[in-house]
Amino acid sequence: MDLTLQILTSGLLLGGLYALLAVGLTLIFGVLRVVNFAHAEFMMLGMFGAYWLWALWGIDPYLSIFIVVPGVFLLGVLTDRLVIQRSIGAPEVTVVFATLGVSIFLQNAALTAWSADIRSVTTPYGSAVVELGSVRISVPMLVSFVVALAFATGLWLFLNRTMFGKAIQAVAQNRDAAALMGIDVGRVYLVTYSVAVAAAGAMGVLIAPLFSVYPRVGLSYIVTVFVIVVLGGLGSVVGAVIAALLVGVIESVVGFLLGTAWAELAYFLVFLAVLVVRPQGLLGRRGAEVYQ
Amino acid sequence: MSGATPSTARRAVRAVGLVLLLALLLAVPALLDSAYWLDLAVMVLVWAALASAWNISAGYAGGLSLGHAAFFGVGAYTAVLLFNELGVSPWLGMLVGAVLAGLLGALLGVITFRLKGPFFVLATLAFGFVVHILAVNWRGLTRGAAGLTLPFDGGPQNMLFADLSTYWYVGLGLVALVLGVSLWIERSRLGYYLVALREDEDAARSLGVRVVGCKVIAAAISAALTAVAGTFYATFIQYIDPASTTQFELSVQIALVAIVGGMGTALGPLLGAVIVIPLGEVLRASLGGGPALAVYGLLLVVIVLTAPNGLIAGLRRVGRRVGVATGVVR
């Protein structure tokens, strides 16, 4: 019983981490109709940002997040201006492979600059736990979980309660009609993309005390997050959060029972099945899968 | 020039060019006297075949696959396992691998034909990962990350050659096969159907094109040819492991070579291999692996943003201009 509870808790916390990546990825898809293959690379840059600020000047990740996230946001602005905006309305091959190219570039630029060494941030609270009854919860995991849910809630409120949020939704529904209503589509794209990758950067900083960083660290997350985003319905913020928690729990349960490799295989097969049977995702709007 | 009409002059130029190119290709082992460069040249052939095979389903039929490493792996592992476990010649193993991959490709085609754009891409990516995870973890069969070696015994009847130049000629045959299939598809009814459904699936369907059948056939042919290249690669390197045969990066590079050269044309992917593979090798030798791949990434971004039809389109424009300037083309 205790063990079951422990595994479920770990799964939920892991899911929270995934949610911070998944919410941004799904938003970018919903609004820009671009699959951002480079998404996890911004997380990697966030991790490296946290690492270097800690290694060079001893700045704690929970402080450096206020430096790193704006930095990643600016990188997002740059990427949007240089690559993403130029690929909108271009042939499909451009839309798919432009972000894949950005991903390859960022990964290997990091490899060139910082080598393939595996680095980690050590903090006094890195392995701290709180005990809730018989369940032990890692403090940094809990913090990132709370931040992820707060971000998702804030984003949801922003999208539904503010004019700019509604403008973003309008662009997601119909780019041309939104433009005709006087919405600055380019600005909507810019804000959406930059905020989403900044969230990925924030996740990078938050997990820096927990996991090691190396240039290819993104690859192990991005594929899981694709699974989550498709399960939740591409473009659905609420769906992404629920699917992230679900995948986190599945991963920790199946991983505990059968080992991580088979857990991965299991959710790829589920992913393929969902794509084939219900491409709009478990919670996605019907028709969202009809691409342009 | 006044006697010959432009079209016969053009044909003559083309014929002379073809003969010269063929002579050059056959002379490559004599021209490249270092094993290093000949080895690289054979790898160019492998990539030319892979990018061409990818182009059949992606370029003609419009299904941008990021899972083709799976078929490459099936071709490599089938031939090596059949040879090591049962003593079956890789020539035969190549056929078995091609049939297996063709069936897998058809199966993937059947389950994904409805998917469009990113959904198709993600489905092929997931399929590639499934095969990769199996290759890494099904240790009883594949020996996992340790990989498999192909013992050098037997010689030509087992597709194992003592000198590099024979690999070059066999590789040329492989590229000729894939190019031949591509050209045949381009000129066949199937090719026109594929292009029609790539451009507008609903319109093609309303004109009576059997959309599902065409897509599945293209996927199967593409997968089978990719597997043939996989077997050739395995007998050339004589060692395979998941990192070199089924990894995601491999699928990306197959697509990259074809896109840089020019998708949807028979010659584009070949041009892509001739440019991208030596460029990558030179960069790797001079700057190291990280910078080489960073340049790949940049190249991909720049090409898809500025020339989504690839370098072949630019080359054609230049060729036309030269032709006009010299009076060969009006």
Q: Any overview of this molecule?
A:
The complex is a heterodimer of chains A (292) and B (330). Chain A is an all-alpha fold and 292 residues long. Chain A is built from eleven helices and two strands. Chain A has helices spanning 2-32, 39-57, 61-87, 92-114, 139-161, 163-173, 175-180, 185-207, 217-232, 237-258, 260-277, and strands at residues 129-132, 135-138. Chain A has a two-stranded antiparallel sheet with strand order 1-2. The model of chain A has no long low-confidence stretch (mean pLDDT 85). Chain B has 330 residues and is an all-alpha fold. Chain B has 15 helices and two strands. In chain B, strands 1-2 form a two-stranded antiparallel sheet. In chain B, helix 12 (248-261) crosses helix 13 (268-287). The longest helix of chain B is centred in the C-terminal third of the chain and has 27 residues, at 211-237. The model of chain B has no long low-confidence stretch (mean pLDDT 86). Chains A and B meet through helix 3, helix 4, helix 9 and helix 11 of A and helix 5, helix 12 and helix 14 of B.
